[in-house]
Amino acid sequence: MTQLRWLSAGESHGPELVATVEGIPAGMPLLAEDIDEDLARRQRGYGRGGRMKIETDRVRLVAGVRGGETLGGPIAMVIENRDHASWAGRMGPEPFPEPPEALTRPRPGHADLAGGLKYARRDLRDVLERASARETAARVAVGGVCRKLLRSVGVEVFAHVLSIGPVASPTSAASGGGELPLTELRERARASDLACVDAVAAQAMRDAIREAAHRGDTLGGVFEVIATGLPPGLGSHVQWDRKLDGRLAQALMSIQAIKGVEIGIGFEAARISGSEVHDPIAYDQGAHAFTRPSNRAGGLEGGITNGMPLICRAAMKPIATLKRALPSVDVRTKEQFDAAFERSDVCAVAAASVVGEAMVAITLAAALLEKFGGDSLTELSRNVDSYLQQVRSY
Ligand SMILES: Cc1cc2nc3c(=O)[nH]c(=O)nc-3n(C[C@H](O)[C@H](O)[C@H](O)COP(=O)(O)O)c2cc1C
Ligand SMILES: C=C(O[C@@H]1CC(C(=O)O)=C[C@@H](OP(=O)(O)O)[C@H]1O)C(=O)O
User: Fold this and answer.
1) What is the band of 183 on the pLDDT scale with cuts at 50, 70, 90?
2) Catalyses which reaction (predicted)?
3) pLDDT digits (tens, 9 = 90+) for 23-62
């Protein structure tokens, strides 16, 4: 068994973000540009704030890769924070020449107050810098490495936006929106600035975001992550922490501002009968494979992949930093004030969907390595092929 481990470090306006990932087999081709494309997609999306005009995220591979191939050791990556240049004397590890002005008016919905109380920080910037979703750039870098591994065994992960505020796209893979083949869904999502596959819905979403911005308000939404090409048998029913649905939920829920996760049709399954929920089983003699005419389970039964595409959804709450700020209290004076506002995204659901892809890719890569092991890519591929042969002759 190979264990995938990873960590990120870095503050939003510090010098750089750092990510380390260990457990990737040796001999996997890996270039910075494999990851940069995802980093660029994470920066997109109608409704993002001024910060995204400053950053042009690129990864620098600093360990674990030689001559374009992984070595089997920890891979370390760095992403520069260009905005750091504007924070001289206020951010960075060295003592400041003068104490910077403290941020003392916590924003409802952000980590400011809870983190300030927990870590006994009087300047709430000490909390928000790490709580910020700037950190998700590091996650996307780790996800890019994992995506490369998954691709080598035929697994693709992609996401699309289902709704922004009250505006919904008519297409959902989980609800049988499979009139669109999944490859087409992926291409359309990648071509849209909102990762929405329906052009009419995307325009209504843009309008909703623009109107929210005019009101000084913000919007959340829902995105769906789909993984194709998965072998049956990732995850396990035998112990609580090995169930893949639970692990995916934790991974997606850990993304800043994600407040709900569904697998397949999710909460909808609780409202209808069993006969309308469960996917009948058939057998394709030619392909020597079990098939399903529907995929309401979203590719998971008993916490184990069943060979159908994996479908997860995540709900993002609206951005907490409001131009028309909500009432708050100054933590120093205890007087009532409006919460702090400098600048902010109005809506970041499309960006979060790219982070969702990364978190799902990381979780699937971990499950793949646990099942098939392998210190080299050759060994991993051989193990996968041998298992697929076993499944075909079951
Ligand atoms: C891609 C992305 C961008 C975000 N941008 C902002 C932002 O500009 N302003 C803000 O207040 N919150 C933003 N958030 C949400 C906060 O990071 C999040 O609400 C905060 O860390 C508190 O965590 P919680 O919402 O999970 O409790 C963003 C989240 C994501 C995923
Ligand atoms: C920097 C990113 O997102 C940031 C996430 C974020 C937050 O509070 O989560 C607040 C904003 O940062 P700033 O206060 O510098 O404008 C976003 O821009 C990014 O996604 O790369």
Assistant:
1) confident
2) 5-O-(1-carboxyvinyl)-3-phosphoshikimate = chorismate + phosphate
3) 999 999 999 999 999 999 999 999 999 999 999 999 999 9
Whether the ipTM is more than 0.95: the answer is yes
Q: Which residues pair with 291 in a beta bridge?
A: 282
Using DSSP, state whether 227 is helix, strand or coil: strand
Residues above pLDDT 70, as percent of the chain: 98
Q: Give pTM, 2 decimals.
A: 0.97
The secondary structure of 258-297, three-state, reads: EEEEEECCHHHHHCCCHHHHCCCCEEECCCCEEECCCCCC
| 140's tokens | 């996307």
Letter for the amino acid at 20?
T
> Which three-class secondary structure state does DSSP give residue 143?
helix
Other beta carbons within 10 angstroms of residue 170's beta carbon come to: 12
Q: Atom 27 (ligand 1): residue with closest C-alpha?
A: 257
Is 313 a pocket residue for ligand 2 (Cβ < 6 Å)? no
Task: Please report, in range form, the residues annotated as the binding site for NADP(+).
Answer: 42, 48
Do residues 331 and 104 lie in contact, with contact meaning Cβ atoms separated by under 8 Å? yes
Q: Please tell me the number of Cα atoms within 13 Å of 143 on its side-chain side.
A: 27
Amino acid in position 257: A
- The binding site for FMN consists of 130-132, 256-257, 302, 317-321, 343
At a CB cut-off of 8 Å and minimum separation 6, what does 121 contact?
115, 127
Residues 6+ apart with CB under 8 A from 63: 20, 73, 74, 75, 76
Name the closest-CA residue to atom 22, ligand 1: 110
Tell which atom from ligand 1 comes closest to the C-alpha of 131.
21
- CATH class of the domain comprising 5-392: alpha beta
User: How many Å apart are CA 362 and CA 4, to the nearest integer?
Assistant: 8
Instruction: Compute the average pLDDT of residues 150-175.
Output: 92
Residue 17 is predicted with a pLDDT of 98
